[in-house]
Write a structure and sequence with these properties.
Strand content: 15-25%
Largest sheet: 10 strands, mixed
Number of helices: 14
Distance between the termini: 12 Å
Radius of gyration: 23 Å
Strand order of the largest sheet: 4-2-5-16-15-6-7-14-12-13
Shape: globular
Structural class: alpha/beta
Number of strands: 18
Helix content: 40-55%
Length: 406
């Protein structure tokens, strides 16, 4: 029996909800605790405990992440009206991811996990495309109004001295309608740019950025200008030394280029574009359950998670005592990403090596034809076997333990 790998600094561990919470414990028990003397600062972000603490636990977990620098997070429920009743909530608590992103000022990077036998719907995509989504402002912090016929809508800004500047949005003399007000902050865009450039250097990948600045000549153009200014003044020489490049184009041109590409780059997107394109890219590569997600702050704080939700449908079957074939790969890769980053920051090469071997054991299990139902449905392998989640994890462990003994 190998000696357990020792950690010096804890990870921040954020537990979650439903089926992913069940998988979380299985992954730790089967794949991590036998090999790593795991040190974590634990926070229960399950909806029950968030409700009990008036969601203070979410804020505490984000503050702990700022302290320790690396976190790993399980999928969590963002409640809707149905969840209010189901969990007898005091109020409709906000998305934990949104709260954590705001506190860390982070950018979300999502990349597909490519497995042998699972061919992307776009066959030229032989390398992963990482979506970098700006996680602040725009339509997600908008103000909307319905407008009566005969109204005039204006955009008004009052400066710190009380002076007003107004622009007519539209004269609704011919029809009722709707208006929407969006905002963003230079500081947030600057943080987004630095996170993207740092991550590109960290992963040695080119980075593309796209907006619609030809139409949005002030709003989107501000994003373009801030990215260009920061790149030229802080990152250009570092990119040249690393042999990577920064590329800007319009969003519609970017979409066409992405479809024709082989992948292997980071695509930086504004908030809404990133929300949509990350799901499109995940689906085109095969499965949202095969998508990593890491929140990176401009000052080098990392929070790893799976890109998918809590798998509610499987959880209800699990509660009835049924076996489920839920795909745990993205959650495993959240753990490996966090452990590898902790090993890198703390100079523990054994921890980095363990994470790499665990990831390879996952991929070997799939390429050997042993997989969960979602992958079996799209896999081109001839001799494939669909197994339940626990069996899948045990099969991974067989391959992991062999690789660790070599």
């Amino acid at each position: 029996m190998m000696e357990k790998i020792r950690m010096t600094t804890p990870l921040v561990e954020m537990d979650g909800d439903e089926m992913t919470r069940v998988l979380w414990k299985m992954i730790k028990d089967i794949l991590i605790l036998p090999y790593v003397d795991l040190k974590t600062e634990y926070y229960d972000l399950g909806l029950v405990h968030r409700n009990e603490t008036d969601d203070k636990v979410t804020v505490e977990s984000a503050e702990a992440t700022k302290k320790y620098g690396v976190a790993v997070k399980c999928a969590t429920i963002t409640p809707n009206a149905a969840r209010m009743t189901e969990y007898d909530l005091k109020e409709m608590w906000k998305s934990p991811n949104g709260t954590i992103r705001a506190i860390l000022d982070g950018t979300v990077f999502r990349a597909p996990i490519l497995a042998d036998g699972v061919t992307p719907y776009i066959p030229t995509w032989t390398k992963p495309i990482t979506i970098a989504r700006h996680a602040y402002g725009d339509v997600y912090k908008n103000t909307e109004m319905q407008v009566k016929k005969g109204s005039k809508a204006k955009l008004t800004v009052v400066d710190e001295n009380g002076s007003e500047q107004s622009e007519l949005i539209y004269d609704f003399s011919d029809s009722a309608g709707i208006i929407q007000g969006l905002h963003n902050k230079d500081r947030s865009i600057e943080g987004f740019a630095r996170s993207c450039f740092n991550y590109a250097l960290d992963t040695k990948q080119d980075i593309w950025f796209a907006t619609k600045d030809t139409i949005s000549k002030k709003y989107d153009h501000r994003f373009k200008d801030i990215f260009a200014e920061i790149f030229e003044s802080e990152y250009k020489s570092r990119f040249e030394d690393a042999g990577i490049e920064y590329f800007y184009t319009l969003i519609d041109d970017a979409v066409a280029r992405v479809v024709r590409s082989e992948g292997g780059f980071i695509w930086a997107c504004k908030n809404y574009d990133g929300d949509v394109m990350s799901d499109m890219v995940a689906t085109a590569y095969g499965s949202l359950a095969m998508m990593t997600s890491v929140l990176v702050s401009p000052d080098g704080i990392y929070e790893y998670e799976a890109a998918h939700g809590t798998v509610q449908r499987h959880y209800y079957r699990y509660l009835k005592g049924e076996k489920t074939s839920t795909n745990p790969v993205a959650t495993i890769f959240a753990w490996t990403g966090a452990l590898a980053k902790r090993g890198e920051l703390d100079s523990i090469p054994q921890l980095c090596s363990f994470s790499e071997k665990l990831e390879k054991a996952v991929m070997k299990t799939i390429s050997d034809g042993i997989m969960t139902g979602d992958l079996a449905a799209i896999s081109k392998l001839e001799n494939k076997k669909t197994v339940d989640s626990e069996t899948f994890l045990k099969e991974i462990n067989i391959r992991l333990s062999k690789s660790l003994q070599l």
